[in-house]
Amino acid sequence: MATRKENPISRNKKNYRSTKSGAGMTKAGVAAYRRANPGSKLKTAVTGKVKPGSKAANRRKSYCARSLGQLKRSSAKTRNDPNSRIRQARRRWKC
Predict the structure, then answer these.
(1) Which residue, of 6, 11, 34, 86, has the greatest Cβ tally within 10 A?
(2) CA–CA gap between residue 78 and residue 90 (Å, rounded)
């Protein structure tokens, strides 16, 4: 059985947002991840206003669909908590 690859970047204030500020990775965190994983296409959240049908709009739509699945599979406590990481991240992405 294959082991899961460990996250190569440290989970600190520089690389990850706090839950209150919307969860997810910061710009510096994404840059650190891409340095550690050459060829990675990881990007930061789509937070601004986008044109319908644009690449950014499609990334947002895809993320929102994926994260809704995560939210549905989470515990009732997480699902109902407005300050959970998944809810804050979805809010930041404007889902």
Answers:
(1) 86
(2) 13
Q: What is the pLDDT of residue 92?
A: 94
Higher-confidence residue: 85 or 2? 85
Instruction: Say if residue 27 is exposed, middle or buried (CB neighbours under 10 Å; 0-12, 13-18, 19+).
Output: exposed
DSSP letters for 67-88: HHHHHHHS-HHHHH-TTSHHHH
Over residues 14-23, the mean pLDDT reads: 88
What is the DSSP track for 32-60? HHHHHSTT--------S---TTSHHHHHH
Among residues 78, 88, 83, 80, which one has the least CA distance to residue 22?
Answer: 88
pTM recorded for the entire structure: 0.80
